[in-house]
Amino acid sequence: MNIRDNAPLRDRLAAEYALGTLRGGARRRFEAWLRDDRLLRAAVADWQGRLAALAELQRPVTPPARVWEGIERRLGPVVQPPWWQFWRTSAARPWGVLALAAGAGALVLAVRLAAPPAATPRTQQIAALSDAQSQTVMVVTADTRHRRLQVRVAEDVHVPADRTLQLWAITRTGKPRSLGILPDNRSTDLALDARATAPDVALLAISLEPKGGSPDPNGPTGPVLYKGSWARL
């Protein structure tokens, strides 16, 4: 592949490399190009600078204990204690801020790739969903103009053939709201339910469910794998 004359592709790869979402063989090939391409190195440095600036603007916020108690009471055994403890303490750690910044950068990238510049949707909220190791694996974009939720999934996310990923909005009182399942467990667009971005939503979560989604209309029945909160642009 020759990327020297493809400016949009160069910028996209530089952004994904800086965010850490470019992995495996693609990342190794990109690093080989970096060694011989000064302008490409400058593009990566530019993206890294943007993300660092975003991190400096964010201040960690520790939600009140009643938020977590309410969510734990509603979800019960669905959310495993180690994962939940990770989420409850992450907001007070520096890397929690960096993860939010990376998610914001990933959203910017997703919006830029979703449509030509003239048709870029008016995105007002984003959420970077991370696993228990604080690795961002999904970016959810709320496109209010077209009433769509854009879900972008990292390529290395693997799901058993008999299972599906389901997106939820969790309110501050711990009540789950299903926002839809991910067809083929890959990147997709879902209808934007007004409840997804309502003021009472504390976080978004992805659970692993049987094919067709959770059999319980009141919440997840499988483990919660990823989570993240909305950030307003």
Automatic annotation (TrEMBL):
One of its GO terms (biological process) is regulation of translation. Coiled coil: none annotated. One of its GO terms (cellular component) is plasma membrane. Residues 209-233 are annotated as: Disordered. Keywords: Cell membrane, Membrane, Transmembrane, Transmembrane helix. GO terms for molecular function: sigma factor antagonist activity. InterPro entries: Anti-sigma-K/W_factor, Anti_sigma_zinc_sf, RskA_C. Pfam families: RskA_C. Residues 99-224 form the Anti-sigma K factor RskA C-terminal domain. It is a single-pass membrane protein. It is found in: Cell membrane; Membrane. The keyword Chloroplast does not apply. PANTHER family: ANTI-SIGMA-K FACTOR RSKA. This is Regulator of SigK. The lineage of its organism: Bacteria, Pseudomonadati, Pseudomonadota, Betaproteobacteria, Burkholderiales.
